[in-house]
User: Fold this.
Amino acid sequence: MKIIHAIDSLDPALGGPPMCVAGLAAAQAGLGHEVLIYCHDALIRRDEVRAAMSRIPGIERVSIVYCPVGGTFNKLTGMLDARYFEKILGGTDVIHIHGIWRPILKAVCKRSMYAGVGYVVTLHGMLHPWALQQKKWRKKFAMWAGWKKALEGAAFLHVLNKDEASYIQCIGLDTHIEVIPNGVFLTQFENLPAKDEFGNSYPELKYRSYILFIGRLHYVKGLDVLVEAFRLFIESNMGVNLVVVGPDGGERGSLEQLLKALGLADRVHLIGPLYGRDKFAALAGASCYCQPSRQEGFSIAITEAMACGLPVVITKNCNFPEVEQADAGEVVDLDAKKIGKALQRIFEDAQRRKIIGNNAKNLVISRFTWPCIAGQMIEAYRYAPKHV
Assistant:
């Protein structure tokens, strides 16, 4: 089977979707399929993209086709994107589009329909009610101007959890929906750095336990709530710090002001983005992972933390009920007091924390690996209602 994955960019600074596309593509290629990724050239961030791709096991089996970004006209219409896409379309069995709104993705939808090639769309949470309220009228116009038709023409819409499926049905789309989560490659967790490696790189963390967060510094990630929860938590846990890893998504300035106002600047460490071994060193040294998101599809960061054997504290908005079902951590409301108390329960019993961490690791091994997810996706392609 020849599969083309289309995404606007593979820039790792954009969060989870680029890495999910690369992981799924590599796993599908590992199952013997011909797989391509079609996306825009990252221009000034080419080195970051290459470095991120090189860390995906098996990515060398995947052909990555970059389209020039082009000028303003192409950014509005996607016409250049469409011409480049036509060059690789021949012999394709299925086109897998990741995300909506971007002209390059709409161009791929149109060319797929013209060529009679079935396509599927992974929404990556972009039709979540919260997401639709951002630039609301622009998105309403985009749906009217062609995106609704494009989504209705898909063989199926791919979502990451059951909640995402339910709110898509509520907005009037009757396209078939497949619920398939994201995954990780277990080989990336076989030889983790030593537990003290990360602390040795940051003297202020040496010999100290810390709670870890990984993700964009963006309002949707709930970092303001996390900081307040941490403030409550350390009233009885003075030996624990908080480490925040990730690129600035527009909230770093306000987060720094909040930390200063609360007197937490020396206890909460904004590290910036980490990749590869540096990221795994941060995971290996942590005592707990916390993600208080306002909205998530399926978080790779949470999955990676569990694969490292970390107990997790997450919000219900993360849509990861398996965590609670497997006793792999705590799932609570988006409330600082409840998050703080959940962290307290994790830290008050070291033996219990270890058991929960082992449960977390076993959950990932049994259900959330890329080869397993890739197989599920291939079956979905083959048996889609509109037969891709």
Q: What stands out?
A: The chain has two domains: 2-183+370-382, 187-367. The mean pLDDT is 91. The first helix runs from residue 16 to 30. Residues 11 and 45 are 7 Å apart (CA to CA).
